[in-house]
Amino acid sequence: MIENGQLMGGTVEIEMNKIEGHDHSRDNGLINHLKGPDFFDVKKFPFSTIAISSVASINVEDKEITGNLTIKGITHPVTFPVKMEMKDGIVKASGKLVIDRTLWDVRYKSGKFFDNLKDQAIADSIEFNIKVVAKK
Questions:
Q1: For residues 98 and 126, is the Cβ–Cβ distance under 8 A?
Q2: Most exposed: 55, 94, 113, 128, by fewest CB within 10 Å?
Q3: pLDDT band at 131 (very low <50, low <70, confident <90, very high)
Q4: What average pLDDT is seen over the chain?
Q5: Cα–Cα distance between 125 and 108 in angstroms, integer?
Q6: What is the pTM assigned to this prediction?
Q7: How far is the C-alpha of 105 from the C-alpha of 94, rounded, in Å?
Q8: Which of 67, 72, 39 is nearest to 53 (CA)?
Q9: Cβ atoms of 66 and 78 closer than 8 Å
Q10: Is 85 within 8 Å of 92 (Cβ atoms)?
Q11: b or e along 99-124 (b: 16 or more beta carbons within 10 Å of the residue's beta carbon)?
């Protein structure tokens, strides 16, 4: 929802089957594993959402978004920075959202839940690069 040229709220739907990595295409072993039951289980949960509850302006371009992120049917509050531009009725936003994956029941090789992983443990933090283009 946009009022007076400012983002005020709304819901963003994320198609989880379109997960990509910087150095990985959509159809390689790592990305396919992320789509599987060990991680995001995209066959069972094809969409995730961010329901925006507030947007704080840091300056003209920089905003801080607060909302509820739902992944795998589990919802937790998140806050993250974005750069936003509105021109000719089109809103462009980009930012980074870092979450603790274990809060959304993504436990695969997490040191919080499995002992004796040693160097096999995977970091619990996941960084999502977000890019949204929407018409007003």
A1: yes
A2: 113
A3: confident
A4: 81
A5: 12
A6: 0.80
A7: 26
A8: 67
A9: yes
A10: yes
A11: bebbebebeeebeeeeeeeeeeebeb
DSSP assignment of 4-40: TTEE--EEEEEEGGG--BTTB-TTSHHHHHHHSTTTT
Give the CATH class of 2-135: mainly beta
Q: Where are the domains of the chain?
A: 2-135
Compute the residue count for the chain.
136
CA–CA dist 94, 114 (Å, integer): 35
Give me 54's structure tokens.
């507030």
**Residue of 32, 38, 31, 114 lying closest to 72 (CA atoms):** 38
Cross-strand partners of 84: 93
| Six-digit token string for 82 | 């974005």
Assigned token pair, 97: 């959202």
- Encoded amino acid at 45, one letter: F
What band does 31 get if pLDDT is binned at 50, 70 and 90? confident
Average pLDDT, stretch 21-39? Answer: 72
What digits encode the pLDDT tens for the residues 61-120? 899 999 999 999 999 999 999 998 888 878 788 999 999 888 888 876 666 655 665 666
